[in-house]
Amino acid sequence: MKIYLRSGLRLLAAVLPAASALAAGPAAPTPPRPGLCLWLDASATNSLELKGEVVTRWHDLSGNQQDAQAIGKPRHIAATQSLIQFSGRDAFAVAPIFSNTGPVTVFVVARRQDTQTNSLTWQRLVSIRTGETPDNKVPNFCLTTGMKSAPFPLTVKVASQDGIAPGAVMIGAGAGKPIASPLHGEIAEVLVYNRGFVSEGALQDVLHYLAAKWGAQVDRQNSGWTRIGPLDKLPERHTAELPLSDQQNHGGWMKCADFSDEFKDAALDKAKWTTFYQWRGRAPALFRASNVTLHDGFLQLAMRREEVPEMKKDPKYHTYTSAYVCTRQLTRYGYFEVRAKPMNSAGSSSFWFSHGTPQWCTEIDVFEIGGKAPGRERAYNMNCHVFVENGIRNHWNTGGVWEAPWRLADDFHTYGLEWTPEQIIYFVDGVTVRSLPNTNWHKPMRLIFDSETMPDWFGLPNAEDLPSFFHVDYVRTWKRAGWEGAFTPEEAAHRDWSTPAHP
To answer: CA nearest 445: which of 331, 325, 276, 278?
Structure first.
């Protein structure tokens, strides 16, 4: 659901030095298959061709027959777990594993022991390169151990990048001759997908598989805390003039009309909202302004099964139409509260913030809900992204999923986001379900509601479930003293946002 991002850039997870344990979740016996084009697994010892302990060939388990040919003498070790050891002179070469330029996501389970540290930095785990451009610049790709050669335990590292050319692949070194930035360490498993991971839930499917299989931690910066289990005692609502979670107004909140709406008028306030932006929707569903209406005192976003003339302009859109509405102005910091009921189909129901310029692009997803997505009916998906920083497309995200004790599409609930210069806190019915430090989300963004088809995450909606409707009763926004309310896109593009504005 990215505006700036989805028109070109796709950076949904990248590795930075801070690591955290992944919350417990279901593990699949094999990795998710959609888009998997290379799978190297050291625990599948029958996939290793050996001369003694030296691995000469590592067979691809994806079914694409993209086997990795050894360079040097990488060793198979099996003391407690089956791993491939790289001495700094070893690598595996793989022919180009996809034919067209597009998104790539790479997951690697790796380890470096105390005896493998040295002075070399930015050691390569996976490198994809074509032409003379360095592999750390688009259209090439690299996933590294990080800038320090410090030891680390078995860790899942992940990076995703759009616009990658179909170059040669190197495991454990930079692609090219001679091999560059070689690895001193061990690799357990490598997964390469020819798609971006557009959601926290889809990403965690792979992370849970790898973390559970290898007993590995997950390398994701500022992962924060996410609730496990039911909500605590719910707060009572005494006044609609304050956030449900802070009815005594300990936070000093003041109502902000620019980003509040009760949706009780006959038509949408066009001075405040627009149903048009650069992005046309996630295929195959096409956004249509007619799917955004006010009905019975609610903002109503529809998903329908239909073909419309606009689809002829772009064949990737077909079968479904969906809805998108965003504020004309941008904002940052505040308490944002909505009362909403997700649609009862596999179409998404989402509340989020996003905006970008050539210099920066950020996003906060308050929720992305698949109300009738098989196995995800109770999943409350939250995420934060920084897609572009200082003009550089090199980004990471941090997210969490809370499993509700009820099916989310069954009823209305109150959802809140407290976004301050110091913290980002998510609420459901006035109770905290996630919190994280605000390290990067200081740029103004649009407030957005939408519905999308998410084939690789929620699956496509069943025909009998459509049309389906995402209902928003209200959105209410509060600010603290000293926080500005609204910005134009022009202000966002030309103002310096490097220092947070503390009240």
So the answer is: 331
